[in-house]
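note to self — DONT lose this again. spent like an hour looking for the file last time. sequence + predicted structure for the chain T wanted, 94 res
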Amino acid sequence: ESLAFDSYMLPTDELNPGDLRLLEVDNRLVLPTDTHIRLVVTAADVLHCWTIPSFGVKMDACPGRLNQASLFVQRQGVFYGQCSEICGQQHGFM
């Protein structure tokens, strides 16, 4: 079963007290624990490189190519991902 998912960073004026600027999103992804998860990514426009430091995952998304990684989440929590390289104009906001 495949899943397509969109999530966008919250603008600064929409943050609640205690939210992390440039990391909070409008639509959080919920993943199961103690389950093997396979990520398959691609890009539609330019190269993107993103990371979830707490999981030790860093991936490149390349137009016209598929890239994959595996996750195994062992504990519950909120984990933040982010752009990790310069992907283009306003790369930190992708």
